[in-house]
Amino acid sequence: MFLDKIALALSIVGGLNWGCIGLFNFDLVAFISGGSGTWLARIIYTVVGLAALWCLTLLFRTEENRTRHSHA
After folding, report:
1. pLDDT grade for 63, boundaries at 50, 70 and 90
2. Residue 31 reports pLDDT greater than 80
3. Distance CA 44, CA 11 (A)
4. More exposed terminus of the chain, fewer Cβ within 10 Å: N or C?
5. Backbone angles phi, psi at 37, to 5 degrees
6. How far is CA 49 from the centre of its chain?
7. What is residue 62's predicted lDDT score, i.e. its pLDDT?
8. Residue 10: how many other CB atoms lie within 10 Å
9. Into how many domains does the chain fold?
């Protein structure tokens, strides 16, 4: 459950960054890391992407699996 929350938070950050790009043409990750092609930016983009993939698993979990997963 802890990993679910971290992945969800990172996915939200990624979504907000895409919102900034779409609305204001401003890439916050690139701004913070010194450009979109830097190693730091690439690491951030990769971690956010992996978090989004993890969040996909949330869509396919049953309530029974969520309950069992959260108590483990």
Report:
1. confident
2. yes
3. 11
4. C
5. -95, 0
6. 6
7. 80
8. 19
9. 1
Range of the domain at 59: 2-71
One-letter-per-residue 3-state SS of 17-60: HHHHHHHHCCCHHHHHHCCCCCHHHHHHHHHHHHHHHHHHHHHH
Residue type, 71: H
pLDDT of 22 above 80: yes
The whole-model pTM stands at 0.80
Query: With b meaning 16 or more CB within 10 Å and e meaning fewer, what string describes 34-46?
Result: eeeeeeebeebbe
| Per-residue model confidence (pLDDT) at position 72 | 55
